[in-house]
Design brief:
- The chain is built from 13 helices and no strands.
- The protein is mainly alpha-helical and about 240 residues long.
- It has one domain.
- The longest helix is centred in the last third of the chain and has 28 residues.
- The two termini are about 25 Å apart.
């Protein structure tokens, strides 16, 4: 446990010392808050967060692969992964430490957006239950993307390849939960296949929690989704450690 916390602090510190993290955070917040506030505060519009949480999944789809591409690929390129392998830590502790640091950084960025609902509350009444549910859903949704991005980063030393493969994978997962695509696929696929494909998409569960109703099945899904990719990431590290 203590070794995992050391990795977590090391990685979290690297985010706040890296200019890439500040560029990421600045662009992410700038685009998200500008579009959302322009939509929510326009004349005659009802104060709500629909534009904010409608845009958020798409921005995470674009930005998280750029954030996670360096998690292992940079370690391999710089040769520091061999040094990490000599530490008295298990592969699982390394993976969980990096994963927790990335999620904590994204959660911190999301906390910085709380000024928007507080501002909207000054203009009108807000229903805080679905808003808080949507923030929780956003953290879980981002966590699932981080797990996928870290897995692909562990398979290559090229950060651009890691980012592109993660982007394609996450786009496919994202679209499988999109209602319009589901309706289109329902025309030529059996219902069982539709339910299966739709059931693996994080976007479906993001929308479910975002309604303000916390269903344990949604939480279990995100735990299993992240656990699968983090376990696969651990297997990759263990295989590399055995090869020396």
């Amino acid at each position: 446990m203590r070794e995992g916390l050391v990795i977590f602090r090391r990685e979290l510190r690297s985010y706040f010392l890296s200019p890439i993290a500040y560029v990421f955070g600045g662009l992410f917040l700038g685009i998200l808050l500008f579009v959302a506030s322009a939509s929510s505060l326009q004349n005659g519009a009802q104060a709500n967060m629909q534009a904010f949480f409608g845009l958020l999944p798409f921005l995470l789809l674009l930005f998280v692969p750029a954030l996670t591409m360096r998690s292992w690929a940079e370690e391999r390129k710089q040769g520091t992964i061999e040094l990490l392998m000599t530490f008295p830590v298990t592969g699982a502790q390394l993976v969980l430490g990096k994963f927790a640091a990335a999620v904590a950084y994204l959660a911190f960025v999301l906390v910085l957006t709380l000024g928007l609902p507080l501002t909207l509350a000054a203009y009108g009444r807000l229903d805080w239950t679905p808003i808080l549910g949507s923030y929780l859903a956003s953290v879980l949704f981002a966590s699932s993307f981080v797990a996928v991005g870290m897995f692909w980063s562990s398979l290559t030393r090229d950060q651009i390849i890691a980012m592109l493969v993660s982007l394609v994978t996450l786009l496919a997962l994202y679209m499988l939960g999109y209602p319009q695509l589901i309706e289109l696929m329902a025309q030529w696929l059996p219902a069982v296949c539709i339910d299966l494909l739709n059931g693996i998409s994080p976007y479906k569960y993001f929308e479910s929690i975002g309604r303000g109703v916390i269903d344990t099945r949604d939480i279990v899904y995100f735990a299993c989704f992240c656990g699968f990719f983090l376990y696969a990431n651990t297997l990759v590290l263990q295989a590399r450690r055995q090869k020396g």
